[in-house]
Amino acid sequence: MTARTTTTTPVAGGTVTEAAATGKDAILLAARRAFTQRPYAEVTIRGIAADAGVSASLVVKHFGRKEELFNTVADFGPAADELFDAPLDGLGRHMVLTLVRRRREQKGDPLLRVVFSLGNHDERSLLRDRFHEQVTARLTARLPGRERALRAELIAGHLIGLGATLSLHREGAGSHATAEHLADLYAPALQSLVAR
């Protein structure tokens, strides 16, 4: 694989600096884009490889078959592990900080890809199912009090909304704000849903 020139490319759930998108990371970004924008039957290992700038054999080496790669893309478990790894009394702030830092460090949003599956009734609906199971239902189980499922859905919506806003305004004020400042402004709304 050859080195790439440094440019910024928009992808489902964020952007990627081309020079940083090599190997496994580039494959995952290309796969997320492919599986969220096209029906499963139309996605090919060769197409993902071409989009990632790697050989098809490298895709197979890292992920095996297309089904295994799809399952990796549809796995929100690791993101949920990071997002929910805090005591309830500081969970709102932790979720905002984690989301913003992960977006900035990994050049992509850990949750936003689920939005690209909306309205589709093919295999992409698995993204929604996994999101519900691995994010919303898991958060519901953690929350105390009444209306836990509703509050978990609203929290998930807030997190997706924050990711969408930061993607929409890539060069906007949010891109210049520290993660801590964004948490100061955004986390109280989330925390009010956690602690209700």
Low-confidence stretches: 1-21
Kindly state the percentage of residues in helix: 55-70%
Series of secondary-structure elements, N-terminal to C-terminal: EEHHHHHHHHHH
Helix count? 10
What is the terminal separation in angstroms? 52 Å
Chain-wise SSE layout:
Blueprint: E1 8-11, E2 14-17, H1 23-37, H2 45-52, H3 56-63, H4 66-73, H5 77-83, H6 91-106, H7 125-142, H8 148-168, H9 173-176, H10 179-194
Antiparallel strand pairs: 1-2
What does this entry show, briefly?
The chain is 62% helix and 4% strand. It has 196 residues and is mainly alpha-helical. It has a two-stranded antiparallel ribbon.
What are the key terms here?
196 residues, mainly alpha, two-stranded antiparallel sheet, 62% helix, globular, disordered N terminus
